[in-house]
Amino acid sequence: MSLIKQLWLTVILILLLAFVGSLAVSVSSTRHYVEQEVQIKNADNANALALSMTQMEKDDVSIELLVAAQFDTGHYRLIELRSPEGEVMQRREAGPIDDGVPDWFVDMVRLDVSPGQAVVQDGWNQYGTLTLASQHDYAYRSLWQSTLKMAAWFALVAVISLLLAWWIVRTIRRPLLEVVSQARSISVRRFTTSSEPRTLELREVVQAMNTLSGAVHTMLSEETGKLDQLRRRLQEDATTGASNRTTLLEHLQNSLDSDSQRASGVLIMVRLDDLPEVNERLGRQATDDALRALVNHLAQLANELGGGEVGRLNGSDFLLVVHGAQDIEHVSESLKHQLTLLRDAVGEPLRLPAALTEYTHGDTPSQRLAALDGALADAEGRGDMALVVASGEARLPLYTTHEAWRSALILAMDAGVALARFPVVNARQDVVHYEAPSRLELEGEWRSAGLFMPWVARLQLEDKLDLAVVERALAMIDSDQLPLGINLSGRAVGDMAFIKALRQRLERAPDAARKLWIELPENTALHDLASFRLLCRELQHTGVRIGLEHVGSEFTRLADLHDLGLAFLKFDASLVSGVDQAFDQQTILRGMATLAHSLGILAIAEGVKRSEEAYTLFDLGLDAVTGPGVKAG
């Protein structure tokens, strides 16, 4: 039996005992008092009537009139006069009064009252014996009414007491439920914290559990900080903090191969011309500050354009990758503005030629960089801040206007999406789930997401596509009973209406939902952590598994996710590529996997191209791998 039920039973039992005890004492005391009073009344009235008879003439008529008058003017049950020989001389008797008192109550409180007796004299001789009994049925009515009043008052007190007890129990129960919920969260390695209740004993328990959660958060923060320092040394330029050449080109290659919005966008190359001369003129520290300022302005430009990554290709060349379909003229104007702000901030006449080119799914990094190099050489000959757009190879777009793209995408979504399947396998070559990127039929062919996702994002159709993907994934799970992993867009995650619609759809298919894996890009989830928390909380009860993909640069914020109940993390391909030959990468991935396991989260590697990489990753403790080199067993 639960503690709450025991408290309720205790309160109710105490109230019942108090009522029964009080009622018993009250009725017993009143009954005894009434018996004494009626007994005294019987005696007094008998003596008074006997004295009156003694002093009057003893003829039968007078005696009968006196007895009748006494009986009619008082409340008597019996007046009887007997001769010394025992013969009845006069007798008046009344029947019981029907006053609405239940028979069971009369039987329970039966009054034991003896009639009063007195001797009637006739001179020196005994005339007779007078017996008088008062009508005490009125006493039953008085007792019954007092009992009803007492019961009514007790009922009122009981209601007030129960309400007070309910409030107290509710006050105790709320922190108890929070403690239970926190304990369950910790059992599945979700280290949440709870507000401290006022009850001392419960407050001590909650404080202890909050201390545990805080310790885990601190431990995660310290360990992720150490791993991030190692990752920065491996992947970032020490002077500017931008990605180094190897990392940036690896990210670019992964973007070009992906089925996401990152598969197309704009590349921007900026050169700080005559770097040795600038270094000699400004000094090393000021030059380094100028390089960091250039990286910061390029990063700000990326944020304005919807996201991207800045890298340093060599001493003076910087590359900005802007994800998603963009208006190249708008990008050029925004770049000019940022470079102008940079020169004004530095206060020196820096030469900053730049080149731009578009990239799309199927390109290679070498092609795009070759085009940028030629355009940048042209820009250097045109002036200090010249911008040149590299045209690249001619491509025939599927549609030439925004409205055409919108109509085609909506028609394709309404017709139904298709989902590809790429396996995610564990060390035993068992399939953990299948990654299921979306496909849309455009111009008579099924197109990969890398082609249409930039336009889906640009036209703000992510929520419509996401719901269509969820519908298709649940239908495939119902049909094939295979676990599928789908991607959700960051924009849709921030839409409460979409989250509500998604939850309702998952609730209608609980069995399929338990085999659905939902993943979001790391930067999308962490840059809008409040919306991501809301998504996790709203979908938690549906059984769907939620995780992050492309985990790497924001890994230091893993401690902020310790209370979300994430099911898996997919580590970015840039950390995985060549891991079998890179000791530093092995150290980073081993630490990241260990921290993920400490929170009960699966650690999965993306972009595995060779079996040697997969074997090394499993030796490092990762749970599963996926990529072009992974086949289902």
TrEMBL record:
SMART domains found in the cross-reference section: EAL, GGDEF
Residue ranges of the TM segments: 150-169
Chain ranges of the EAL domain: 398-633
Pfam families in the record: EAL (PF00563), GGDEF (PF00990), HAMP (PF00672), LapD_MoxY_N (PF16448)
Family matches, as InterPro entries: Cyclic-di-GMP_PDE-like, EAL_dom, EAL_sf, GGDEF_dom, HAMP_dom, LapD_MoxY_N, LapD_MoxY_peri_C, Nucleotide_cyclase
Keywords from the named record: Membrane, Transmembrane, Transmembrane helix
Annotated SUPFAM superfamilies: EAL domain-like, Nucleotide cyclase
RNA-binding found in the keyword field: no
GGDEF domain residues: 263-392
Residues covered by the HAMP domain: 170-221
Source superkingdom: Bacteria
Protein's name in the database: EAL domain-containing protein
Classification lineage: Bacteria, Pseudomonadati, Pseudomonadota, Gammaproteobacteria, Oceanospirillales
